[in-house]
Write a structure and sequence with these properties.
The complex is a heterotrimer of chains A (325), B (330) and C (285). Chain A is an alpha/beta fold and 325 residues long. Helix content of chain A is 28%, strand content 25%. Chain A is globular. Chain B is mostly helical and 330 residues long. The chains are: A alpha/beta (325), B mainly alpha (330), C mainly alpha (285).
């Protein structure tokens, strides 16, 4: 840790991304009926960056493997997972050991639901977490402050997770991350099941964290919520990122958006054209040779069916498509 | 619903359940024995020679010629008054035989229940924590072999090693022969208790260890342990903080649900070690057609199993905070 | 357990994948059990000559398991006993499976019937298992018939619970609703839609019942409630051996019991591996 703060102090890498994921692929080895072995690919050739003081939203439909991306960054994948590619934190390539050292200290996770809290442990003990001896009082004070700030009544401390309401649970989950000194905060699906008011409240907490200098990675399927607070939007599809757009690009008919899928997502929103595109994502065990969006794309040509399109930088964004310039 | 009301309802329900259960069990077992080829008079007399007149009197006493339904009602009627009848082989009230024998067996069952529970839990946690390692495989194999081991055979093997070959323990009887009951010391009892208790403990470990292992592995791959890991918790601390907390209650519950097997194990072990407990009384009653004693033991052991299940239920409904909450909101 | 066994045999099976290993274990274990049963069929009283000249011999090359007080070869007696145990276990498990199917179908018939089945399960479990078998076996006058029925009529509970749960789950499926709306009878739905789904479960459950059935048969016989002392059962052999323990004839008890343990383990192995083939979810553990 010592040398890391040193690097930060020099400010040498200030401009560079705090988190840099390059060409990440993740697959699982599984047994199917009759004990035949298969490999299931959930993430392929994925690249994204998260910057300090910014919110990066990773947007994609439910069940597309977004959560596994966070597990890969934190090094909490199950044992039958196979991970390739590079994950850099603050300019340093992370090994499994590094991830274990960094998690909870430099990198924090805000999990997606209350099932991520121990059902038999009181909430306050979980928010405080495992503490070194002698620091208990300090942490207890900090926890009380955070609870007050998040409008959680003192009696919530003594509650068990199942006694929390949806909004309370969300605030408790966010406060676990605020307790830690982490610079990179990964927030997994914070919006489902929240009413308008709680939703905006939760989003404002995230904005707050970014304003204080943290890099926030928001994993969500809710593009509207993401657009409200994010600086950049990464569009996740079939295990990879097709486009990273700036939030300003989402306007009018989506003519500034680079990828046909991003445009389709934008146009599917009720306040825009409200039209969905046909087809579905390729299944995880399907082998796709070309572009993963090939089947549903209106711009496709022969080149798209042969090999994955290269990443291009266009207009301050990034896109994986053969047919944009 | 208030907690008091809930507890009262729980107790009421349990008592009703026990009464109906005992009613059915006593009826079914009575009829089973009734229609079996057992002759109570011959059982009573054994090798004794008596006059035909005397025999007739006895037949009347045992109700050989009364219809079974009537006999059942008579028997059940005295049961309600607390009269279990007289044991044919011990020539004393069944209730006294059961009291004395059950006390002896209780020492055996309680000690092995405790030891196997604690040992099994520890082994299960160790195996689950080290899933896939050599240690885990050794514990797993040990448990599978134990689960396949005939209880009475293990008892025989231990008896051969420790009593016959090494001569450390007596070969039989829970108290020394020829010593007055009041002169039997605590150590005499202990000496006779160790081997049977050891046998039962060793065998009882398997189930609880395997269960604890599976449960711990399940807990350790749960969302909340994943999150605890994501927050930097690891190693033994993680297991102690989240693993044990979530595994302990189900494991204790399971141990209380094992009273049925515990009783069966006791019967077998007492037979091998000639330990004068309820198990040996069961076997004698069965082999020598002591119907009143056999039926008495059936009823008492039913209560015994019921109590175990009820404690498990109480743990489940009143101690686990998740269930407590669900109950009160519904 | 299978993992343990697989690991023990790792060097033997090098180069095989999990599927091949599992199939190989299944083949070998089934062969072993079959060999025991078949060879026990060829053993009759003539193969067990009484020879007082060679009584109470400790294990040797000629008599690997030693001889008893009548000079009979213990290996032969054990084999015969194991064969008998397996046959009785098979019979009892089969009857239990049939009971399970009947009770399962009954519980699918309606709410009242289902409660009745649940009540029957609770009732059977309320008396200590071993005591219940003893009671039934006494009620039926003892002997092979008493033991078989005693064991068979008490081992259906766990499988019936599984089957009941499965049926509950199946009943929420759309195609069953559709059949019902089309006016198909309960019996038709039970036999045409529900039973076929349950067959693999019941098959596996029956095999997993085997070890319990065999152990209970041996226990009850050992206590003296089961097979008569003239039968060459393992329980009889072991209860006989009790009389010679203090004389130091350890082999009389040791080998027959160990053989029984191995047979029970073998059944466990078969059930476990078959289960893995059918439901591979946990295979990569």
């Amino acid at each position: 840790m010592g040398n890391k703060t040193e690097i930060n102090a020099k400010g040498k890498e200030k401009a560079e991304a705090l988190l840099n994921v390059e060409d990440l692929s993740l697959s699982f080895i599984q047994y199917t009926s009759g004990l035949r072995q298969t490999e299931l690919k959930v993430i392929s050739n994925l690249s994204i960056q998260a910057n300090r003081g910014e919110i990066l939203a990773v947007v994609g439909s439910s069940g597309s493997g977004k959560s596994l991306l966070t597990h890969a960054i934190l090094g909490i994948l199950p044992s039958n997972a196979k991970l390739d590619g590079k994950i850099e934190y603050d300019g340093q390539v992370l090994t499994q050991k590094d991830k274990e050292d960094l998690r909870g200290k430099e990198i924090a996770l805000v999990p997606q639901s209350v099932t991520y809290l121990d059902p038999l442990m009181k909430v306050s003990n979980q928010v405080i977490g495992a503490v070194e001896k002698g620091k208990e009082d300090l942490m207890k004070k900090l926890q009380r402050e955070i609870f007050q700030q998040y409008n959680l009544k003192p009696e919530v401390e003594r509650m068990y997770p199942h006694e929390l309401s949806g909004g309370m649970a969300r605030r408790v989950l966010v406060s676990t991350a605020v307790m830690s000194p982490a610079k990179l905060i990964i927030v997994d699906e914070p919006t489902p099941g929240l009413d308008e008011k709680t939703l905006n409240e939760t989003l404002s907490y995230l904005k707050d964290m970014a304003n204080k200098g943290s890099a926030v990675m928001l994993i969500t399927h809710d593009i509207e919520a993401a657009l409200k607070i994010s600086d950049k939007i990464a569009v996740f599809y079939a295990g990879t990122v097709l486009e990273v757009a700036n939030v300003e690009d989402f306007k009018n008919d989506g003519e500034n958006l680079r990828h046909p899928y991003t445009q389709a997502l934008w146009n599917a929103l009720p306040q825009n054209k409200f039209q969905a595109i046909e087809g579905h994502q390729p299944m995880q065990d399907e082998v796709v040779d070309g572009c993963v969006f090939y089947e549903r794309c209106y711009k496709k040509n022969e080149l798209c069916s042969k090999g994955i399109p290269q990443i291009k930088k266009i207009n301050g964004g990034v896109v994986r498509c053969n047919n944009v310039s | 619903m208030s907690n008091k009301k809930k507890i009262a309802g729980f107790i009421g329900k349990k008592i009703l359940r026990l009464i109906s259960l005992l009613l059915v069990v006593s009826f079914v077992s009575f009829m089973l024995v009734q229609y079996s080829p057992i002759d109570p008079v011959r059982a009573y007399l054994g090798e004794m020679a008596v006059s035909a007149e005397h025999k007739e009197k006895l037949e009347e006493y045992w109700g050989v010629n009364t219809p079974p339904q009537e006999k059942f009602l008579n028997w059940a009627g005295s049961l309600l008054k607390g009269d279990f009848g007289v044991s044919l082989i011990y020539r004393m009230p069944v209730i006294d035989v059961i009291k004395e024998r059950f006390k002896a067996s209780l020492a055996l069952m309680a000690s092995s229940w405790l030891i196997s529970g604690i040992l099994g839990f520890i082994l299960g946690v160790v195996a689950g924590m080290n899933k896939g390692t050599l240690l885990d495989r050794v514990i797993k194999t040990y448990c599978y072999v134990l689960a396949a081991t005939p209880t009475f055979w293990l008892a025989l093997v231990l008896l051969m090693i420790f009593s016959v070959y090494l001569g450390w323990f007596p070969i039989g009887l829970s108290v020394p022969i020829g010593v007055m009951a009041e002169n039997v010391t605590f150590f005499d009892r202990l000496e006779h208790l160790i081997l049977p208790a050891l046998t039962l403990s060793v065998l009882g470990v398997a189930q609880i260890a395997m269960f604890t292992r599976e449960k711990l592995i399940e807990v350790m791959s749960s969302d909340y342990v994943l999150f605890a890991k994501a927050r930097g918790e690891k190693g033994l601390d993680l297991v102690l903080r989240h693993g044990i907390r979530n595994v302990a209650l189900p494991a204790i519950t399971l141990q209380f649900l094992s009273f049925s097997e515990l009783f069966g194990g006791t019967v077998l072990v007492e037979q091998v070690f000639s330990y004068q407990g309820i198990g040996l009384a069961t076997v004698s009653a069965g082999l020598k057609s002591d119907v009143p004693l056999l039926l008495g033991i059936v009823l008492i052991s039913t209560v015994f199993v019921f109590v175990g299940n009820m404690i498990a239920d109480i743990i489940y409904q009143f101690i686990d905070p998740r269930i407590k909450q669900q109950e009160s909101t519904t | 357990m299978s993992t343990a066994a697989v690991n023990v045999n790792r060097s033997l099976f090098k180069g095989l994948n999990l599927r091949q290993k599992t199939l190989l274990i299944l083949g070998l274990t089934s062969f072993l059990l079959l060999a025991i049963v078949v060879s026990s069929l060829f053993i009759d009283n003539e193969s067990l000559p009484t020879d007082f000249g060679s009584k109470n011999l400790s294990p040797s090359l000629e008599h690997p398991f030693g001889t008893d007080w009548m000079g009979r070869d213990m290996l032969t007696r054990t084999l015969k006993g194991l064969g008998l145990s397996i046959v009785i276990g098979a019979l009892a498990s089969l009857i239990s499976a049939v009971l399970t199917v009947i009770l399962g179908l009954l519980s699918s018939a309606g709410k009242a019937a289902d409660s009745f089945v649940a009540w029957l399960v609770d009732l059977t479990l309320s008396i200590p298992h071993l005591l219940l078998i003893i009671l039934i076996s006494i009620g039926l006058g003892g002997g092979a018939q008493g033991v078989i029925i005693g064991v068979a009529s008490t081992h259906w509970t766990s499988l019936t619970r599984i089957v009941r749960a499965e049926i509950k789950q199946l009943k929420t499926q759309d195609y069953i609703h559709i059949s019902r709306n089309l006016g198909k009878s309960k019996w038709w739905i039970a036999t045409k839609h529900i039973l076929p789904h349950l067959i693999p479960q019941i098959l596996l459950g029956t095999i997993l019942m085997f070890p319990h059935a065999i152990l209970h048969e041996a226990s009850v016989t050992f206590l003296g409630f089961g097979l008569s002392p003239h039968e060459p059962a393992i329980g009889i052999i072991l209860s006989e051996s009790m009389r010679y323990l203090s004389a130091g004839y350890w082999w009389l008890a040791f080998f027959p019991g160990l053989s029984l343990l191995i047979v029970v383990l073998t059944f466990d192995l078969i059930g476990e591996n078959l289960g893995k083939l059918m439901d591979p979810k946990n295979a990569h553990e």
